[in-house]
Structures are given as structure tokens and as C-alpha cells.
Amino acid sequence: xxxxxxxxxxxxxxLTMALLAACGEAEIAAPELSFAxxxxxxxxxAQPGAVIEVPAGIHEFTRSLSxxxxxxxxxxxxxxxxxxxxxxxxxxxxxLLVTANDFTIExxxxxxxxxxxxxxxxxxxxxxxxxxxxxxxxxxxxxxxxGIYPVQSTNVLxxxxxxxxxxxxxxxxxxxSQIIVRNSRAEFNVAGIEIENSTYADVYENVxxxxxxxxxxxxxxxxxxxxxxxxxxxxxxIYGNNTENFAPPGNIVGNVPPGxxxxxxxxxxxxxxxxxxxxxGNVNLMIYSxxxxxxxxxxxxxxxxxxxxxxxxxxxxxxxxxxRHWTLVALHETTGKPSPxxxxxxxxxxxxxxxxxxxxxxxxxxxxxxFVNLNAGDGTxxxxxDTVAHDCILPRLNPIEF
Length: 402
Known about the structure:
This protein is mainly beta. Helices cover 11% and strands 39% of the residues. It has 2 domains: 1-30, no CATH class; 135-390. The chain contains 4 helices and 31 strands. It has helices spanning 3-8, 10-25, 35-45, 326-335, and strands at 51-53, 57-60, 63-67, 73-75, 82-85, 91-98, 103-111, 116-121, 124-134, 146-151, 154-159, 162-164, 169-174, 177-182, 185-187, 191-196, 199-204, 207-209, 213-218, 229-234, 237-239, 260-265, 268-273, 276-278, 283-288, 307-312, 315-317, 342-344, 358-361, 364-365, 371-373.
């Protein structure tokens, strides 16, 4: 339209000038960020004392998240309501990696990560409360290794949490000190709950079921932190841990036989009491050396022998009817009976006496008193069922407080 025409038509002139003015003054609004995009920004820009809220819903991420700022809380609205989903993850080794002190995460879920779900590294004062980590496709060697995974940390509290489907350990605390794992559930993992190369830990009032192994207390060679000791495992329900081992080849937990309630490997000063063991097909509780079966050790600083293991006041109901560990298979072929509830491989540190290696007292339930010393130091089983040498009491360990 020619300008002269606009001038002759005052209505058209008014409309045209209004449109021109609007176009000149309008600001183009930035597209609204999705929660996933804003969450990553909040993690990057967080200041100490920040509380980052995760609303209800399934929030999808395609790459790892990380936090390095101290004194930050990440809080959802429920363990099954606020879900961080990584089912389409294309980058990164973890779901969420935290390297920060005074960290709290609570009331949310992390699902289907390529690697570890929640890894917390070199941190002090860590709280994981009401957090679920899960691989929703069930047990699979392609799942991430660890669900809840604090490592090289101090003052670690894990409570009210759930871990499902990890190809190594659902709830794992490694190379750490001052640890509490309580009121949590581990199911359909290779190892349900694992305390590894750590000191001063309390594991209590948890449920470990449908894992390959329910609760593991390990000390392994060739790690920066060694000398695992002083763990109490008490008042847990450890039952029906008969899932086939689905750890990837070469993984140390790939050696855990299906049907294992609890394993103590090369760890010292362990107190196991008040637990309910049931229907773990291989064995309810086994205590053994890393050197069992002739395994080679190339770490001169490593002590492969467990010592001062105090097992008392537990309840054993069935179990041991389907042995899978080679020593227990051999024992079953000889006796025709289920694995005893408490099994010790009988391997001793050179010069040690066996009277205080394993002490047993006041256990009850079906076959409560069954115990075997496999005397398997030379790679063969020469079983002794005598409990007299193990009728002893060890000092009670102190509760963990921080």
C-alpha cells in the first residue's frame, strides 16, 4: 500500500502505524527451559547452602550430572514421584557424580543410568535419605555397576533407601570410614549391600533379598585404602538371595555364588548379631580368606585373612539346600546335608591360633548351632563340625555416631 493511500485512509493508517510500533518495541521471549535443563544449570551455579528442588514427574537426561559445591541439598517430593531418568543417556559414566562435603540428597529416584547411578567421591558428611536407584529392566549384566556408591568418604549416612538391579552392588560404601546404612532395601542386585575396604560401619534394620549375595563385608588388595575392620551387621532381614550372578566377566563379585546370605572376606573385627537369615540356598553366612582356592596376591601390604568375627544372637531358618560354592558342593556330596548356617574356610594367618578367629554364641532357629570349619587351606575340604573351639566371646563393637 502506497503511503499516499494510507494517508487518505485514516483507519488503515492507524492500524499500520500500530503494527509498526508493536514490531519495533516487542521483545522476543526466550524459550522456557525444561526442568532437566534448569536442573543442570542449578547444579553448576549452586552456592553453599542451596536447596535444589526436584518436582514430581519423570525428568529425562541424556548426559551425566555433577556437583562440586559444598553444603548443597537436592530434594524431591518422593522416592517414586521425583524421578531422574537416564534411559536415553548418551554421555557420561554416572547419573549424578558428587564431589562435595556436607551433601544431602533425599526423596527422589535415579533410574536406568549407563554406569553408576549415584556416585559420591571424596566427600565428608554425606546423607542419602529416601533415594531409590533402579534399573527397570531387571537383573542384567548391561546395567550400571553401583546404585548408591559413596567412596573414599567420611561420615556417610544412607537411610530409607532402595537399590534395585545393580550389576555389582546396590548399596556400596568403599574405602570410607564412619558409615551407617539403615532402614533400606536392596533387591535384585549382584551384591545387595556391600561394605568394602572400610572402617567403622553399622549396617542395620535393612532388608536384603533376591540378590545374588545379600550383605558383603570385603577387604580387597590393590586399592588405595586397605585394612577393613570394625563393622557391625545387625537386625537385618537377609533372605531368599538366590538370583543368578549377572556381574560382567572379571568383576570380583562375579565370584559370589547365587544363594549367599552374607559373606565376610578378609575383614577383621566384625560383629554379626540379631539378624534373620532364611532361604539362602548356597549358605546363610560364610567367612573366608581371599587366599581360599589358591588365589594369588600381589599386594605386599594386604592381609587376606579374616580375624575376630563374632556371630551371636541371630536366627537361622532353612537355607543351604542348594550349595554353589565349590567347598560347599564338596561338603554336600560327602554329607548329603545342607550347608551349615555358619561356614568358615579355616584358613589361618601364619602363626595365628583359631580360637579367636570366629566366635559363635546364642544363635537360634532351625539348625541354629550348625557350623563347619572347612580346613580348606590346601585346596581340599577336611570339615570339622566341632564348635567347642568357637564357644567364645569377643568384645562388643561400639555404635557408630556422628
